[in-house]
Amino acid sequence: MTNISNQTLNESVSQPTYDRSKLKSRIVHLGFGAFHRAHQGLFTDEVARKSESDWGICEVNLFGGEDLITSLREQNHLYTVAEKGAESTDVKVIGSVNESLHPSFDGIEAVIEKMAEPQVAIVSMTITEKGYCADPATGLLDKNNPLVVADLENPTQPKSALGYIVQALKVRRERGLTPFTVMSCDNVQENGHVAKAAILEFAKLLDAELGAWIEANVTFPCTMVDRIVPAATEETLNEITELLGVQDPCGIACEPFRQWVIEDNFVAGRPDWNIAGAEFVADVVPYEEMKLRMLNGSHSFLAYLGYLGGYAHISDTMTDEGYRKAAFDMMMKAQAPSLSMPEGTDLEGYAKLLIDRFTNPSLKHKTWQIAMDGSQKIPQRMGGSLRFHLEQGSDFKWLAAGIAGWMRYVSAVDEQGNEIDVRDPMADQLKAVCDEHGQNVSVVPALLAIEAIFAPEIGQNPQVIDAVSSAYQSLIENGARATVAAL
Ligand SMILES: NC(=O)c1ccc[n+]([C@@H]2O[C@H](COP(=O)([O-])OP(=O)(O)OC[C@H]3O[C@@H](n4cnc5c(N)ncnc54)[C@H](O)[C@@H]3O)[C@@H](O)[C@H]2O)c1
């Protein structure tokens, strides 16, 4: 079959310039999704292009994505990233992946054995918020999560990422091998700390000694990752085919901007990702919070209120002056004041850059896609700044409008009475609460009372209830566009 690995590609396509046979699977990555392909995969490729690097990646999908792994194998683990600017597109073939596994067809043991191979130095993850099996309100392991319950009962046949990592570390310890670094690249506040807390608690429930060994020997660096990578669509894949000259079912399009700030704390070495523009720092947390609150927080705000206002893509919301101004104010008035950044950080410049990135019309980033998993995202993206404003006594109407937008969205009916396909691990519970209240403002305290999403000091705070109720009332009476314009 002709594909990217055996076809002559269009001349403008940039291809790996290094000997791929020298790469070793020193990284096992869980989550060969859209984002990883356009971010860590590309950074690792660029390091190999610019230096003598033997860092290769073994890709694993634990949930879904079987077809992607099959296609990746058929094309010798090469895939395409199309960086789409407002005017032109750069097409790069990525060569940093040298292997892949899927438990559905390779078996669970094969994945654990790979993670236990001596050369593996890093297990990295893009497994989405829910992959950490953490309680969104506390960030600690949710012991009632069905995956956690199943893995504690049957630890040699894990289902969750935590179960795989702990089992692989157990095997390494038994074989006298060095441990690996666990590196989260998910959009989760203090992602390394969340991964560490969940993995240690899980390991200790299983075997206290193993838990202590992991605590003493494994590191969990935090990372701040940034690049807008919409899910692939038929349209983007067709465009990639045209640019390449051949089909690539693993191809992915993204914006030109990319950023990666990494806590430099690795137990068994790491690629020099700085060669490709990453920054290694001692403390990532301030950068993470800046990105999570300003970019992701305003993204969620635009996703719910934009979807309700009839805008399919983030770039569509940016054509509406009301949304554009509200998103900037959300960044500068609601989120920026809550941050403690290193001296000299230009938050206004950052906010303006974000508005420009959101405006890029060639990126078709769906409001529906960003709206997914709100129950897991809202506390991360808006909870910290809500607390800040409650302490300061300052105005948080933008946050209240974002939360009200989410509440209106999870009722699963849009402003025209059409059904919304709400994707969320708590979708059924949320819909049941909404159905009980109908489109009545009484739904606001009922949803705020869900402690798995809102900590009681937020959800039961009268000021929060008032502000969200007033935004919700406006959504019901005036609709999303007018509500946003009035902000
Ligand atoms: N797409 C972006 O623009 C972007 C930007 C920055 C960060 N991120 C982060 O990257 C992560 C992945 O996003 P994506 O856009 O690649 O999504 P995606 O849907 O393309 O990929 C999701 C990946 O997560 C895995 N997964 C899902 N549930 C899991 C579970 N319970 N346990 C283990 N693995 C699980 C899937 O196998 C898949 O590989 C998210 O956390 C997201 O916040 C995405």
Number of helical elements: 21
Bound molecules: nicotinamide-adenine-dinucleotide
The quaternary organization reads as: single chain
Structural class: alpha/beta
Mean pLDDT rating: 96
In percent, how much strand structure appears in the residues?
A: 5-15%
* E-strand count: 11
Tell me, briefly, the overall form. Answer: globular
Largest sheet: 5 strands, parallel
Radius of gyration: 22 Å
Q: How many angstroms does the end-to-end distance come to?
A: 55 Å
Parts with pLDDT < 50 across at least 5 consecutive residues: none
Instruction: Estimate percent helicity.
Output: 40-55%
Strand line-up in the sheet with most strands: 5-2-1-6-7
How does this model look, in words?
The chain has 487 residues and is an alpha/beta fold. The chain contains 21 helices and eleven strands. The strands form three sheets. Strands 5-2-1-6-7 form a five-stranded parallel beta sheet, sandwiched between helices. Strands 4-3-9 form a three-stranded mixed beta sheet, with helices on both faces. The protein is globular and about 60 Å long. The mean pLDDT is 96. Bound molecules: nicotinamide-adenine-dinucleotide. The site of nicotinamide-adenine-dinucleotide has 25 residues, from helix 1.
